[in-house]
Design goal:
The protein is an alpha/beta fold. Helix content is 43%, strand content 16%. The chain is built from eleven helices and eight strands. An eight-stranded parallel barrel has the order 1-2-3-4-5-6-7-8, surrounded by six helices. α1 packs parallel to α11. The longest helix has 19 residues. The radius of gyration is 17 Å and the shape is globular. Bound molecules: 1,3-dihydroxyacetonephosphate. The site of 1,3-dihydroxyacetonephosphate (13P) has 14 residues, from β8.
Length: 251
C-alpha cells in the first residue's frame, strides 16, 4: 500500500459555471498541503479555466470523458489531446452515466482509455454493477468483465486508476458497506495482479465512488485496497470535499 499515493478525485458531472471556480482557490487555501493527491474533473467547458485557477497549487485537473480519436468529424465531442491541451492530466472514462446515457460498452471504453494514454493523460476507468446485477449475485462477474474489456494491455501504475462505483450507490445517499467495497476491491486487485503482473497490479490505485461524504469517508477509507475516492455531489463544495480529503489523509 505504501507506494500508492491516495487520490481524492471530484467529478462535477454536468454542474459548474464560472462562479464555481472560486471553490478551487478555497480548496487550495484549506487543503493545498494535503498528503493525498487532489483532482477535480469539471465539465469540459471549465477544464481550461479551472486549470488556470489551479496553476501554482497542488490541485490537478481532469476531464469527464473523451473521444477515442484525436481529431475529426465528431460534432460535440472532445478528444483526449484537447483535454491535455486545456491543462488536464487525467480523464474519467466509462462512467456508468456515460455507459447508460450514451450506450458506451467496454470496447468503446477501452478505445477511449487508449486515446487518453496516447495523449499523455492518466485514465480513471470506472466499473460497477447495477442493483439488479448485485441482487442476481453477478457482481464479481460483471466487474471482471468490465475490467477485462475496458482496460488495454499497456496499463501501468501511472496511467491507470480503477474506480469501483456501484451504480445503485451513485447519487442515492446509499454508500456500499465496507464488506461490499472490500470484496470488490480485493477482487479487482487480484485481477490486476494476474493480468499485469504483481508489480503493476499492486501499483494501480483503486478508488471507490458512490455517495462518499465527509461523514462516511473514514469508514470507506479504512477498507483494505481502497486508495481514495471518486466523489460526485460532495465534490461541489470546498468544505465537503475538504472533509473527505482530511479523512483520506488520516487513513
Ligand atoms: P455521488 O458521490 O454523487 O454519489 O457520485 C459518485 C460518482 O458517480 C462519481 O463519479
Amino acid at each position: 500500500m505504501a507506494d500508492r499515493r491516495k487520490l481524492a478525485a471530484g467529478n462535477w458531472k454536468m454542474n459548474g459555471v464560472a462562479e464555481h471556480l472560486a471553490m478551487v482557490g478555497a480548496l487550495a487555501d484549506s487543503h493545498g498541503q494535503a498528503r493525498s493527491e487532489v483532482l477535480i474533473c469539471p465539465p469540459a467547458t471549465l477544464v481550461h479555466r479551472l486549470a488556470e485557477a489551479a496553476q501554482g497549487t497542488a490541485i490537478a485537473v481532469g476531464g469527464q470523458d473523451c473521444h477515442w480519436e484525436e481529431t475529426g468529424a465528431h460534432t460535440g465531442d472532445t478528444s483526449a489531446a484537447m483535454l491535455a491541451d486545456a491543462g488536464a492530466s487525467y480523464v474519467i472514462v466509462g462512467h456508468s452515466e456515460r455507459r447508460a446515457d450514451h450506450a458506451e460498452g467496454d470496447e468503446t471504453v477501452r478505445a477511449k482509455t487508449r486515446a487518453a494514454w496516447d495523449a499523455g493523460l492518466a485514465a480513471i476507468v470506472c466499473v460497477g454493477e447495477t442493483l439488479a446485477e448485485r441482487k442476481a449475485s453477478n457482481t464479481i462477474d460483471i466487474i471482471g468483465g468490465q475490467l477485462a474489456g475496458s482496460i488495454p494491455d499497456q496499463a501501468t501504475g501511472l496511467n491507470l486508476v480503477v474506480a469501483y462505483e456501484p451504480v445503485w450507490a451513485i447519487g442515492t445517499g446509499e454508500v456500499a458497506t465496507p464488506d461490499q467495497i472490500g470484496e470488490v476491491h480485493d477482487e479487482i486487485r487480484r485481477r490486476l495482479e494476474k493480468r499485469f503482473g504483481p508489480g503493476v497490479g499492486r501499483s494501480v490505485r483503486i478508488v471507490y465512488g458512490g455517495s462518499v461524504k465527509p461523514a462516511n469517508a473514514a469508514e470507506v477509507f479504512a477498507v483494505e485496497n481502497v486508495d481514495g475516492a471518486l466523489v460526485g455531489g460532495a465534490s461541489l463544495k470546498a468544505e465537503d470535499f475538504g472533509g473527505i480529503i482530511e479523512a483520506l489523509d488520516a487513513s
